[in-house]
Design a protein that fits this description.
Blueprint: H1 2-21, E1 33-36, E2 51-59, E3 64-71, E4 77-84, E5 90-95, E6 98-103
Antiparallel strand pairs: 1-2, 2-3, 3-4, 4-5, 5-6
């Protein structure tokens, strides 16, 4: 009886250790990352940028954070960045080092 109880306790502890060690990996947002514009596949009604890269650091229900770097059709470099929450309130959008109030809302993905 005592050996049976010890075996059962050992089995339960072993299962607890195994299941505690197997964490599910955190799901990553497919929008987060670097996005480089392919100028050859892009159409603009006016001359478009020569190159542009969009970096999305966060895009979920708690935060929106991105930055853009590129070169305009005139060869002048530009930057834009935004760091805020998707709550409809205005957060600063920085465009070429100048801050401007903007707001962002994200629709539910469900």
């Amino acid at each position: 009886m005592k050996i049976r109880t010890l075996a059962l306790v050992f089995l339960m502890l072993s299962c607890a250790v195994v299941f505690a060690g197997t964490r599910r990996p955190r799901r990553t947002d497919p929008w987060v990352g670097d996005w480089k514009m392919d100028v050859s596949k892009s159409n603009f009604p006016t001359p478009g940028p020569k190159e542009e890269t969009l970096t999305i650091a966060a895009a979920d229900a708690t935060a929106v954070k991105y930055s853009t770097k590129g070169t305009g059709p005139d060869g002048v470099p530009y930057t834009e960045s935004y760091d805020g929450k998707p709550d409809g309130k205005a957060y600063p959008l920085t465009k070429n080092e100048k801050k401007r109030p903007r707001s962002a809302t994200i629709a539910s993905r469900s």
